[in-house]
Amino acid sequence: MAAAIKEAQTNMNAESIIMLIISAGLMVYLLYALLRPEKF
Questions:
Q1: Total domains in the fold of the chain
Q2: 11 alpha-carbon distance from chain centroid
Q3: Is residue 12 a part of any domain in this protein?
């Protein structure tokens, strides 16, 4: 039982990290597009 909970937490952690990276990348892209609209 404890192993299943630990595995679920690890999986959730990896998913959260991936989502954080995607969100950060999207934010940087949007800020860049906002500041330099002539490039798009």
A1: 1
A2: 14
A3: yes
32 Cβ contact partners less than 8 Å away, ≥ 6 residues apart? 39
pLDDT (tens digit per residue) in 10-23: 777 888 999 999 99
Range of the domain at 14: 2-35
Distance CA 1, CA 9 (A): 13
Residue 40 resides in a domain? no
Residue 31 has pLDDT above 80, yes or no: yes
pTM beyond 0.90: the answer is no
DSSP tag of 38:
G
- Residue 39: which residues within 8 A CB-CB, separation 6 or more? 32, 33
